[in-house]
Specification:
By secondary structure, the protein is mainly α. It folds into two domains: 110 residues; 122 residues, no CATH class. It is built from ten helices and no strands.
């Protein structure tokens, strides 16, 4: 397991810490003709060798360097301005998949995927992740639609019933923090609200935007905390 952790560490250091913005821009401009592309690939190989610190891993290094280069070249030629974000995500997914795949093929770790898929906690975690990502995002759009429209029209100084809902949400969150014994969460909530309310006092014309952001933040926090509590309870039961 330590090997896969080191491989992931090498990837993230090479792709984010050791890749300046100027390199990214040059690669996007010159694509496969950019020397920075090949320097970037060599840095990845060097990081893997450095972290694993074994000469015997050179086949693994060469394979991962080759796959990294292929993925980067495909991304450089396929991405456009309108799909740049999508290709950034796809690029990282492919890199991680190649790392896990090569690691599994070479080291053949004792992982029983059948037993893993039969573990109810695996499916519960998958459900929780789905809820706090895609499902919550859609729910937020539905919940915030009427206020988003009011915010765009700019015909009122405050969102309708915003104060009432903010109060309900913050009290529910405070109650939750107290029940689970995380009093620091109450302090964080108060600090966050104070920052937003300072904006109200400083720029009264931005009050609707402040309330809109605050409601969205509290709803998002509330859903995540609720799912987390359910997850913890199910984990204890199972």
């Amino acid at each position: 397991m330590i090997i896969i952790i080191k491989l992931l560490l090498a990837h993230f250091i090479g792709d984010f810490a050791f890749q300046p913005r100027s390199w990214v821009e040059e690669k996007e401009k010159r694509k496969a003709k950019s020397p920075k592309l090949y320097l970037h690939i060599l840095i990845h190989g060097g990081l893997i060798m450095l972290l694993l610190w074994e000469w015997e891993v050179w086949p693994l290094v060469l394979i991962l360097m080759g796959l990294h280069g292929i993925i980067d070249v495909v991304k450089l030629y396929a991405q456009k301005k309108k799909n740049k974000t999508s290709w950034f995500i796809m690029d990282q997914v492919l890199h991680l998949a190649s790392i896990f795949g090569i690691w599994y093929i070479i080291y053949q770790p004792a992982i029983d995927f059948i037993s893993l898929l039969q573990d109810p906690m695996v499916w519960i975690y998958m459900l929780a992740i789905l809820i706090v990502t895609l499902v919550t995002g859609i729910m937020m759009q539905v919940f915030m639609h009427k206020w988003a429209k009011s915010l765009q029209e700019g015909n009122e100084s405050s969102l309708k019933n915003a104060g009432k809902y903010i109060g309900i949400l913050e009290r529910l969150l405070v109650l939750t923090f107290i029940i689970i014994g995380r009093w620091e969460g109450v302090g964080f909530l108060l600090a966050a609200k104070s920052v937003f309310r300072f904006g109200d006092l400083k720029e009264s014309k931005d009050r609707k935007l402040t309330e809109y952001i605050l409601i969205g933040t509290l709803i998002s926090f509330g859903i995540a905390i609720g799912v987390g509590l359910i997850l913890v309870q199910l984990q204890n039961i199972l």
